[in-house]
Amino acid sequence: MTQTTAENPARKQRAQLKVRTLRTDRWWLAPALTFTGLLTFLIYGFWAIFDQSYLAEPYIAPFASPCLATACPEGARLFGLAPIGDWYTWPPGLLILGLPGGFRLTCYYYRKSYYRSFWLSPPACSVAEPHGKYTGETRLPLIIQNIHRYFFYFAVIIGLILTYDAVLAFRDKEGNWGHVGLGSIILLVNAILILAYTFGCHSCRHITAGRLNHFSKHPLRYKAWTFVSKLNAKHQQFAWASMFSVMIADLYVRLVAKGIINFPFA
């Protein structure tokens, strides 16, 4: 027989636990690894912004592309142009990284990652968070997360530029096609992973066919939505793979530019 609240006043209260969680597995491992991975990316990105060794023709480091000022080496400029002229003299990474950085910062998967690993909100399922209140993404600064879809458009442009750079990496220093070096392959793989992560975004899935009521009336958009959905199913994997691939590609070009890596097929 079920007791009523009047018969048992204790039913008004939730169970009072003196421990943070009753889980006995290593629940802290996932947020710890995520914290380490994201922190590594942040530290490397900060270093790369101020490192000037970003051009080793025909390779250009992804964190410095596109280079849009006249202060950029001619081989690093997009289409050989410098549209912002002389007024910008800071490292190109400061101007460029904000766009893909903003895209990743507001990405649905990355939100979950750094909410759990940096803010412990919550650190894992069935683990209490240390914060006293929760307001969600309804006020500053987290309400800015809602502009993710606009960062997506810029991320597509950056992804296409990195693909263009990867294609140019198959030329030699004299501009002749047919060069295939380790750097060419690394930049190509990075471009593919960047595009897979970008086009697998939830915003892209919504743009392709998110508001359609009848797929049968829009067969092309339905096919695009199906393709994007397949990428979206691996969005987490592409997020991590592209994050490390862009670091590896960027570091490789800089090591070649510094002369640390120097062999015939570099």
Automatic annotation (TrEMBL):
Keywords: Membrane, Transmembrane, Transmembrane helix. The chain crosses the membrane at residues 27-50, 87-110, 150-171, 177-199. It comes from the Bacteria. This is Succinate dehydrogenase. It comes from Microtetraspora glauca.
